[in-house]
Amino acid sequence: MTHDLENLFAHSGAARMRDLTPWIGERSVRGWLKQGRLVRLHPGVVALDDRRDDWLVRAHAAVLYTNGVLSHTTALVLWGAIAERPTRLHVSVPVGRGLRGGPGLVVHRRMTDERPYDISGLPVMGVDSALVDTWAFLNRRAAQPGSVQLARAAVINAVRSGRTTTRRLTDMVLTRPNIAGRSELRELLDLIAGGCQSELEIWGVRRVLSIEGLPRPHQQYRVELPGGPVSLDAALPEVKLGIELDGAAFHGDRAARERDIARDTALASLGWQILRFSYRRLTADPDGCRRDIAAAYRRRSPR
User: Fold this and answer.
1) What's the Cα-to-Cα distance from 87 to each of 55, 64, 66, 77, 280, rounded to whole Å?
2) What share of the chain has pLDDT > 70, as a percent?
3) What is the pTM of this model?
4) CATH code of the domain made up of 200-300
5) Is the CB of residue 133 less than 8 Å from the CB of residue 71?
6) Residues 154, 82: contact at Cβ < 8 Å?
7) Is the CATH code 1.10.1740 the one for domain 2-54?
8) Taking the domains of the chain in order of start, what are their residue ranges?
9) CA nearest 97: which of 74, 66, 61?
10) pLDDT tens readout for residues 217-247
11) Do domains 2-54 and 200-300 have the same CATH topology?
């Protein structure tokens, strides 16, 4: 009996009661619920008790209950734009559906003719729609602390990994004039399109790299080395001055540090000077960072 029960749920770990009863009878299903071998996750949807906390099982159960499409941060987890799986699942259904959410489930109603994608056997909203919807949802006044940072990180990760482009997202934002935080999203997309690949680089562009009297640095500047091309976070190529913005985890990663030392040595052999700024220095002393860049530029400038 146990083996048969596990086989019934082998695919997703969850099922509609109405889909089970023709095969095993309503009495058996209710008996398993009473024994605790099955648990009801949503009205009419049950799952194996030992898989009730499995995130993918809960996602399948949410789809079975709503007959909707996984959206917002839930879709972004499946697209790989968000690493940590939020406890609350998000599902979008057509306008007019009377479904309500519940503990751990948020139901959104939206008009769309977009066809869902299939990821791990689940219907999932497209990454562009999921990013813009997540941005709007997490930029509401009632959003929890850290929500905006999560939305920003999702956009940066999705573009950097090639899952979408700033152009595609900008085009979608143009069709959504009333979303919360629209101007901030446009600004973020412009910064990413300009070459920023992290929040640290955005900080650098805003607080450090704009220096009066100096040309604007080129972001993600490509330099050909004997071992292959490298990209500098920023560069003033007319004087062969490179600027690297090291993240907070830089000093804790010895292997990465060794690679960067080797790369800087190779660049120096071609006449480049590399200025490295730590996360702490960038955020605590942006004025000093600007002075160092300006001084190095003027020393290397033929004028």
Assistant:
1) 8, 18, 18, 11, 32
2) 94
3) 0.85
4) 3.40.960
5) yes
6) yes
7) no
8) 2-54, 67-193, 200-300
9) 66
10) 999 999 999 989 999 999 999 999 999 998 7
11) no
